[in-house]
Amino acid sequence: QLVLFSGKLNTIAGVVTTFFLLVYATVNLACLALEWASAPNFRPTFRYFTWHTCLLGIAGCCVMMFLISPVSASASLGFLLLLLLALHYLSPSSTWGYISQALIFHQVRKYLLMLDVRKDHVKFWRPQMLLMVQNPRGSARLIDFVNDLKKSGLYVLGHVELQDLDMLPSDPLQPQQDSWLSLVDKLNVKAFVSLTLAPSVRHGVRQLLFTSGLGGMRPNTLVLGFYDDTAPQDGLARHPAFTSTREETPLGFPPLRAPAAPK
After folding, report:
1. Nearest one of 150, 147, 96 to 125, comparing CA atoms
2. DSSP 13-39
3. Residues 148 and 236 reside in one and the same domain
4. What CA–CA distances, in Å, run from 225 to 32, 108, 158?
5. Which of 79, 82, 129, 186 is surrounded by the most beta carbons within 10 Å?
6. In whole angstroms, what separates CA 137 from the centre of its chain?
7. Per-state percent for the chain, helix, strand, coil, to nearest 5
């Protein structure tokens, strides 16, 4: 308003135009990302819409920005980066969904289809670990040890719940999933979680060997982490991930079994 009163509208005309072109470029970028991710909820009504038009719009806006005013264009891009950083670190979590997850899903599915097990070679073999864990409280060190052994291969934490789903009112594994995922985050291990219900451990391990992984990424090494003749110790309580930050041991896991009585 002060600029309007001073009669120098041309001083901000370049900045306003640059901001408008920048907004239009980001809209085209969002549409391009949705198109490349094959998002099922993205259904543009523009008859001639393709990803080529998105690229053309982005390139045209960027060229026009610098043709109008290189200084204003550079300042606008810098302001945009600051705004993105502020939104990333200061804004609360939203439930709108992240386009990055859709892009990752699309790329992972495409490369999994390209991963042909018939073309595997022994010199590129790597261990794909399936670690069976009865109770994470007593297996924290073993989880870290197998994480070091995997050598950039697949790593799956498996757990068998000895129950029968037909005799239960609901699936008991669903509320446990969050506890296991939080455990993976706290221990900072690059692992997936796979839980199953079975009448015995043998049947459960067989189920996880058949169902864990996808395509060419399937476990080829089974590690059993059960100790029946050793008194269990709560390794999570002394793990650096919890002692250094003074955080409580994650809830959701049952207490360790009592040591066996001497015979």
Report:
1. 150
2. HHHHHHHHHHHHHHHHHHHHHHHHHT-
3. yes
4. 47, 30, 10
5. 129
6. 24
7. 55, 10, 40
Type of residue found at 117: V
Of the candidates 113, 136, 125, 123, which has an alpha carbon nearest to the alpha carbon of residue 193? Answer: 136
Q: Are residues 92 and 132 in the same domain?
A: no
Assigned domain for 114 exists = no
- Domain assignment of residue 229, given as a range: 121-244
CA distance 180 to 191: 10
The rounded distance, in Å, linking the Cα atoms of 20 and 149 is 53
Please give the C-alpha separations between residue 61 and each of 22, 162, 230, in angstroms, as whole numbers.
Answer: 7, 61, 68
Paired sense of beta strands 129-132 and 221-224, if any: parallel
- β-partners of residue 224 are 132
Question: Do the domain assignments include residue 116?
Answer: no
Q: In terms of domains, do 125 and 239 share one?
A: yes
Do residue 84 and residue 127 come from a single domain?
no
* Strand order across the beta sheet in which 192-198 lies: 192-198, 155-162, 129-132, 221-224
User: Do 127 and 56 share a domain, yes or no?
Assistant: no
Q: How many domains does the chain have?
A: 2
> If the chain, 263 residues long, is cut into consecutive pieces of 10 residues, what is the mean pLDDT of each piece?
73 82 93 89 87 93 91 88 88 78 88 86 88 87 90 90 82 85 90 91 92 88 78 74 59 68 51
